[in-house]
Amino acid sequence: MATVRDPEATKARIFEAAVAEFSRHGIAGARIDRIAAAAKANKQLIYAYFGNKAELFTQVLGRCMVDLASAVPIDPDDVDGWVDRLLDYHATHPELLRLLFWEGIEYGSAELPDEEARQDHYARKVAEIRDAQERGVITDAIPAGDLLILLISLTNWVSAVPQMRRILTGPGDADQDRLRASVKEAARRLVAR
């Protein structure tokens, strides 16, 4: 009896294996052989479905960012809620920040392969911040793009460097709750009119 192929299931397995591989080893350290083995897929299928290793990384990171944007849309009208949702998302999806760090290590300030799409992605977020500024909901003393990167940095950094978070603020649940409250207070102060 012939085996029925399911290309979408194979692509999904490859994608999940690639997320794990790239978040552990970065672009340069990742190995297509390991991705294929983890996905129980033929190595040639990876190239056929996703292109070379750099193209696969770009697709993986791009989709992870779309997933974040969909799960945690920016909400300048509810900064506390947005910070909570962003912290919770990164706690359950630590791979996204790792992927972004690896991208930064690999590309530095050079243009990204998907630069235009990335600019569009962030332009929509900056427009939401600018709209909130124009409506008087948040401060306009800081340019919208600058304010967005400050809020993202403030919120993401505590997830990106868990070792520093533990050392500086403590390892317990009460310490984490206090830090979350502090991050929210800092975000409120950043956007305050």
TrEMBL record:
Nucleotide-binding as UniProt keyword: no
InterPro entries with a match to the protein in the record: Homeodomain-like_sf, HTH-type_TetR-like_transc_reg, HTH_TetR, Sco4008_C, Tet_transcr_reg_TetR-rel_C_sf
SUPFAM superfamilies for the chain: Homeodomain-like, Tetracyclin repressor-like, C-terminal domain
DNA-binding region in chain numbering: 31-50
Residues annotated as domain HTH tetR-type: 8-68
Keywords, ordered alphabetically: DNA-binding
Name of the protein in its database record: TetR family transcriptional regulator
